[in-house]
Design a protein that fits this description.
about 210 residues; 10 helices; mainly alpha
Length: about 210
Amino acid sequence: MTGWLIALGLAVLAFVALLLAGRIPRSAREVTAAALLLGMAGYAWQGRADLPGAPRKPLETKGEGFDEKLAERRRGLAERFGPAGQWLMLSDGLARQGKTKEAANVLLSGLRASPEDPSLWLGLGNALVAHGDGVVSPAAAFAYRRALAIDPEGAAPRYFYGLALARSGQLQEARDLWAPLVARAPRDSVIRAELESAIARIDAILRSGAAVPQ
């Protein structure tokens, strides 16, 4: 946790220094903030910030941790064809081999070419969560929020950000993201039924005060 606090502090200090000393135009401030947070993604790639330094053990079985069903759901809700789809397919291929760092790196390359593509930001959030063994790091949260900001009415950013939060035990935050999505979804849609069931389970857990299932 200390590592993330230090990294966040440095990012904030760098942004303030650029504002004061560099006199960044208002139109460039969002891009500057995005660049600083993307830099933190590199920090996330080096391993788990909350653990002592140690070499990362390679996966014995390639693709063992890749969630094929999750990738299929993302393809159904987000990108289909075009440049974003190509970058995401390449990233998925690397993730299947257990190369989570490279999978995220590919999406960063795509974002340099298309910085306003919500599907690429969403894919980066998913890739960083996978690389962090399910932890929603500050860099992953930033990527999800960028996808939400660019595509506020889209189903995919809310669905996957909420899913990552729920899996990490942040149930109320996940519920807050999913509730508007359920309200907008067609009554007979699969995603509405799925999320209504998930929200009902979250409500039951929150009411009972039971420990969050791991």
